[in-house]
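Re: Re: ligand-bound prediction request (bumping)

Still looking for help on this. To restate: I need the protein modeled with manganese (II) ion bound, output as structure tokens. Inputs repeated here so nobody has to scroll up.
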Amino acid sequence: MTQFNPNEIGMANGNYFALPYSPEQSEIVLVSVPWDVTTSYRPGTSKGPEAILEASVQVDLFDPNVERAWEIKIGTIQEDSSIKKENKKFRKIAEKVIEHLEKGESEEVLSEEIKIINDASASLNKKVYETCGKYISEGRFVGVVGGDHSIPLGNMKAVADKHDDFGILHIDAHADLRVAYEGFRYSHASIMYNALNEIPQISQLTQVGVRDFCQEEADFINHDPRIRCYTDMEIRQNSFEGKSWKRQCEEIIASLPASVYISFDIDGLSPDLCPNTGTPVPGGLSFREVDYMLHMLATSNKRIIGFDLCEVSPGSDNEWDANVGSRILYKMCIYSKLNFKNR
Ligand SMILES: [Mn+2]
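Reply:
Sorry for the wait, this slipped through. Here it is.
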């Protein structure tokens, strides 16, 4: 560790940001979940953690907003190889289901395959819950790196064991409020429905950047008092009509309770920042807008209690998505630390 020089380029060592700390030495730990079984449009996010880790070596650890950011002890939990293996196996079955549904077959005909996927997702959720819970019980702060957006449910549940009341700041192009999708109960498109339904400690869901949702989800948003959705349309219209991003961020943050979990789907950003993500949608937030909002949250009177970053998918011919993802991941880590210091 004495050899570590933050001014030099990172040397790949199997850890995020090439940092030299073991999980036992770290106050923030990152758990990789290479899982994209329920992805509907195009798979690839299971390769996200590996690609982000690789790209993260290039991230400059200096940050003008966080003093001595490179000293923050961020540890890497080595990827559980069984997750990848299971992902491959169950992804094949899920693909078959999706293909048949697209041909107009009913979910009933495919109920056996759907049950296999639902059971596999439930056991993945349990695994993530147990891993995150272990580190949280040791007093560490946990971030999970996906994978598709079904994967953070276990981390949210582990956080809920420690916090009686918390809100989720959800950055996403999608509302993720579907009651199962393509028959899959633990679908990437259902994460917030499942979180609200299975975790009573969640008193608030504040969504930012949503711009692609269905009637069922719009009704859900309108009727559930726990949800405030700042759609991309609303945010842009406000900006066009002269309301500053600062004012909008203040309102977004004010909508949240004292403790906040951040769930970041990379597709909340403009698709030029994540062209290979599972379900890209035009519009979206800029890198700087998100950075500004997260920094404001970190320096507010709220307490950040955990996070996830999902849906980053490496392209076959470039590392751009992972480059952006690794920078978002770093910001969430160092702003979380800034937030612990400020309270
Ligand atoms: Mn999502």
